[in-house]
Amino acid sequence: MNDIRPIRAKSGTNHEGTSAHNRRVMIDALRINGALSRADLARATRLTKQTVSNIIEELERDGLVSSQEAVRRGRGQPSTPYGLVPEGAFAIGLQIDRHVTRAVAVDLVGSVLVRDEAGLPPGGPSNGTKVILDLVAGVRSKLAGIVQQSEKRLVGLGAAMPGPFGVAGSGDDPWMMEAWQKFPLLETLTAGTGLDVGLQNDAAAAATAERMVGAAHGLDHAVCLFVGYGIGAGLILNGELYRGTNGNAGEIGMALLFADGKSTPLEHRASLASLYQHLSIDPADPGLYARINDLALRGDQSIHAWVEAAAVDLRWSIHLLETLFDPQTVILCGSAPEALVNRLIAAIGPLLPSIAQHRGRTLPRLQPGMADPWSVALGAAAGPISRAFDPRFAAILKDSLQS
Amino acid sequence: MNDIRPIRAKSGTNHEGTSAHNRRVMIDALRINGALSRADLARATRLTKQTVSNIIEELERDGLVSSQEAVRRGRGQPSTPYGLVPEGAFAIGLQIDRHVTRAVAVDLVGSVLVRDEAGLPPGGPSNGTKVILDLVAGVRSKLAGIVQQSEKRLVGLGAAMPGPFGVAGSGDDPWMMEAWQKFPLLETLTAGTGLDVGLQNDAAAAATAERMVGAAHGLDHAVCLFVGYGIGAGLILNGELYRGTNGNAGEIGMALLFADGKSTPLEHRASLASLYQHLSIDPADPGLYARINDLALRGDQSIHAWVEAAAVDLRWSIHLLETLFDPQTVILCGSAPEALVNRLIAAIGPLLPSIAQHRGRTLPRLQPGMADPWSVALGAAAGPISRAFDPRFAAILKDSLQS
DNA sequence: AGTAATAAGTCAAGACACTTGACTTAATGA
DNA sequence: TCATTAAGTCAAGTGTCTTGACTTATTACT
């Protein structure tokens, strides 16, 4: 009769949770709307003027917001807008890709202050860990050289790498990503940097970036279709990144397509990997990015065939994402040369019919996102910033309150 | 300069929000774990014993929980477990299907107390509204005859019908569902019943039912693949039903499949509609359910061919849902005869490889859910109960606190 | 048996964060 | 000039959780 079953329950909350939530709501409002007065904030958040005043005062003491020039708007006392202070917080973003690793330092509003990259030697984590830790340390010290107190204001390190995580893989990846995926990266990075470390896949990172400073800014439901070496979808649902049970939600590249009696993962058909194979070029070529961009700009015939084929699969992928997630918009982004992404977008249209053809639609069904080799690292850095400052259910719960 | 841009912000919260959240967390814990003592609840929710005592006292006054026989568990004062009181709250669930409408009255723990159905005359809402309102009124008065104070404890009316909502349709549906989808159903039901009314699609309702009393009980990430006249997926993400921008998330039946050079919606290939067509029978036949069940039990050859074909599409659908949502489990349910669902499940296996083949997996990748013509109505009723009593982010916000 | 240990649950005071309503400040418009 | 309007502050009030001591009830040990 002595049942020792664990009791499962969500955590309760208390005053601290309330306060933490309200602080986050203020920051979020300032991020979405730009500078706002206390009175504006009170109306928008449904809190009282007094409460807003107290919280703003606290945020100002913490260096997260600052007052601006008073604004006269008709009768009444002029309002004093408060805006986010970019240097109020920083985060380091780290991208681990097949043959390269990139790190950036980003501030509270998502500006990249420092960026650096390094080649990853073959051999997986055993050879790459030192390179990565050195890269992070370098970015961190450069940041310290640019701004005061950066270390105190560093909220964490976000890492991004291709998924999926924790899955028994196919073993056909020459880039040892599987070894990386199995490696205790979080623990290694935490031990090596002393920072709070988070990990997400590259598509999720791209979506996080789009939400902070890109096309998904202020949206609560958006899907980012990320075309990189692989292909994946980053999901913004209810205003938050959706991770799924194991952080693998959105791994559309693993979706099997059936054609001509055989099944192929989408990843093998529409991704830069397939392009490299199509063009018979070495993905480790350092001048690759410029070369592809050049080919895309020139409208090269060899690229054209791949674009047309990939566009068919992407068009269908977008249709499927619209059908399953019912987002406000789909964003096409990638760690691909911008010219190539533009060609893809042009080739994808017109979109397939879907539930996205909705009466109340205001946003385009498909929008271009960032096409920048640094966008994944930026999104990786945006992760810790979002965790620290965006309103989230988890942030009100007692078991998340440590500070 | 007089910019009248609307300021967008999430709502703040206050003590009431805190309290409302904690009440919901208690109810949720009792629902998941069964009866618990105050001390157990305090540990599980991370609240203090005193706080739990106060909230339990309040919930007991409200008739939502009641104490049970004291339990001796080793040293120390025996604990007094508290459990949910089924008749603490009720909701009416309404299913509007092509040729039939069903209504149920459900209690706090998801037991169906009253059920009734009626045929829907052709002609869409103009002819059907009266039938529906009469059906609801009948169920409501029968409930009042069974339990005391049912009207006071009625938290709302949940309606479910096939989606998608608000989409420019294809117009090829003989059952006038498009007319229903365009009809101001919420307003009509609110005016006709005086209740708080919610609306979701049938797959979402099935998922809500599975979460309250079925295979998704206590799970935070589950996908219900619902096979009915159409086919759809109900999504439980982060412990809540995910609706998408327009309540159309999960409408996998609208997904276009490409084969033999033409595109077909999944719905036309794997759904009861396709079965009826395959068997050349009239979907309005009142003895349909028994007839199909009988055919499935006998292992009829005509059904066998459809099952084999549908299983291919369902196998792929499950693979896709696993890939995109990374759920803890996929549940196959339907408003289809149980024997048919069992045949389908048997025919679907083995599943396609996917990211669901994860190291830490404990639940089966695919589980059977309810296969019951009443499950959609039950899920419809579970909607208002979940909105009223489950922990949700929205419930802590000031703009959701009215009571 | 008697007593120490253990755990549930209560009591009463305290702390925290939001709310209330009156008040001050500073601008515009008639 | 002065009523009106709106931003923002002040100080007391309120609701909800927390704290720490205390009571109650049972088992385990001597």
UniProtKB/TrEMBL annotation, chains A, B:
CDD domains: ASKHA_ATPase_ROK, HTH_CRP. GO terms for molecular function: DNA-binding transcription factor activity; kinase activity. Keywords: Kinase, Transferase. Residues 11-20 have a biased composition (Polar residues). Residues 1-22 are annotated as: Disordered. The keyword Transferase applies. Residues 28-75 form the HTH marR-type domain. Belongs to the ROK (NagC/XylR) family. This is Sugar kinase.
